From TrEMBL:
Name of the protein in question: Glutamyl-tRNA amidotransferase
Top-level division of the source organism's lineage: Bacteria
Organism annotation: Candidatus Beckwithbacteria bacterium GW2011_GWA2_43_10
Gene3D superfamilies: 1.10.10.410, Uncharacterised protein YqeY/AIM41 PF09424, N-terminal domain
One Gene Ontology term of the molecular function aspect: carbon-nitrogen ligase activity, with glutamine as amido-N-donor
Length: 147
């Protein structure tokens, strides 16, 4: 399971005394435990899909922090957040390319009876779950529908 790999990587980071990795893994481990408590899954633990959702959420938080630090003129803090984000991204599946997203959108348009934005987005997000950013998909759907 993915959770076991994260725990093992945390142990390795502790042995190597890598401060950035230790901090990142501890933060991620705390987020996973909090999600287990939230979903009442403390005994059976999170599934890999739920764990990936937590990792995506934490990576997105890092991106928000990077943007805020750069806007505030603190590039040294942004660099630390980038390192954490890169470490988190090693656990995530590769993102879909724009061409792949476009193909999925065209399939959704042809199979959908309604040609409105909401109906298409619902179909596309199910097909791209976890492999594409929602904002990117939204922009592509609007482009395809001519909105």
């Amino acid at each position: 399971m993915l959770k076991d790999k994260i725990k093992e990587d945390l142990k390795n980071a502790l042995k190597q005394r890598n401060a950035v990795d230790i901090g990142t893994f501890k933060m991620l481990w705390a987020a996973i435990i909090n999600k287990e408590i939230e979903l009442n899954k403390k005994t059976e633990g999170l599934s890999d899909e739920e764990t990936l959702s937590v990792i995506r959420s934490e990576a997105k938080k890092r991106q928000d922090s990077i943007d805020a630090y750069l806007k505030g003129g603190r590039p040294e803090l942004a660099d630390n957040e980038k390192k954490e984000q890169e470490l988190l991204k090693t656990y995530l599946p590769a993102d879909l390319s724009n061409e792949e997203i476009g193909k999925i959108i065209q399939e959704a348009i042809t199979e959908s009876e309604k040609k409105d934005f909401g109906a298409i987005m619902k179909i596309v997000m199910v097909k791209t779950k976890g492999r594409a950013d929602g904002q990117r998909v939204s922009a592509k759907v609007k482009e395809a529908l001519g909105e």
